[in-house]
Specification:
The chain is α/β, with parallel strands linked by helices. The chain has a single domain, classed as Rossmann fold (3-Layer(aba) Sandwich), CATH 3.40.50.880. It contains 8 helices and 11 strands. The mean pLDDT is about 95.
């Protein structure tokens, strides 16, 4: 890990000394290059860089290069971050480093008006970062098995809330999404509003209430990067995000 950090620091130092010739999206964790593949379906000129393993000044240098930020899916969020440390026994694996890394990325995006997309865990962490909380275990707390079946992903329906940014983006009232999670938004952070929900009433998407003087900010509980590219809940979200990324780059 130490050698990796040193190597990344050298790369970032060199990059920061050069003028940018392409837009850059920073992804918190880019499993199997999934987000590189997803973004490049629309535009191969955009560079996708993973932040996982980067710390301190190196992270600051990387984020200064960002024209867009994606907080991706993964482990459960430490429940102490939303005031329920006792619930850790009902959580899966906790990654304290990743929690802090991604909260730093989210705050940086807000403070510097960088387009921000949260997916699954990233959607949940957007809510937690600004004072919201989570349902710790959907099957136990809600009696619903809609979002994960036998520990594996599933497809289910979502409903898009009218008169929201998300509705303007996807231009459909509902759709089928790829899902694999057992936690979800509970108390909504005050800066957000719900823009999609599942048949069991679980929050499926959040966006800012007030978009004045704010960059693109969207959290979705589903995985657009793993869905059919003909699905508007995949490609239309990607296209809307990339429009804002390119505007930031200019």
């Amino acid at each position: 890990m130490r050698k990796l950090v040193i190597f990344l620091s050298i790369i970032l130092f060199v990059a920061c000394q050069q003028p940018k010739h392409q837009a850059i999206i920073v992804v918190s964790k880019n499993y199997n290059q999934a987000f590189t593949k997803w973004i490049h379906k629309s535009d191969t000129s955009i560079k996708v860089v993973e932040a996982y393993g980067v710390n301190g000044d190196s992270l600051k240098k990387l984020l200064r290069l960002a024209d867009g930020i994606i907080i991706s899916g993964g482990e459960d969020i430490n429940p102490s971050l939303y005031g329920e440390p006792e619930e850790i026994t009902r959580c899966g694996k906790i990654n304290v480093y990743r929690d802090q890394l991604e909260m730093n990325m989210i705050r940086y995006a807000f403070n510097h008006k960088i387009p921000l997309l949260g997916i699954c865990r990233g959607h949940q962490l957007l809510n937690v970062t600004f004072g919201g909380s989570l349902i710790v275990d959907i099957p136990q707390d809600l009696g619903s098995n809609l979002h994960r079946k036998d520990g594996k992903h599933t497809m289910h329906k979502v409903y898009i809330v009218p008169n929201t940014m998300l509705k303007r983006i996807v231009r459909v009232d509902s759709g089928e999404v790829w899902s694999n999670h057992h936690q979800a938004v509970k108390k909504l952070a005050s800066i957000f509003r719900v823009s999609a929900y599942a048949p069991d009433s679980v929050v499926e998407a959040i966006e800012l209430k007030d978009t004045n003087n704010a960059a693109f900010v969207l959290g979705v509980q589903w995985h657009p990067e793993s869905m059919a590219d003909t699905n508007p809940l995949n490609y239309r979200i990607r296209e809307a995000f990339l429009v804002k990324v390119k505007e930031h780059f200019k």
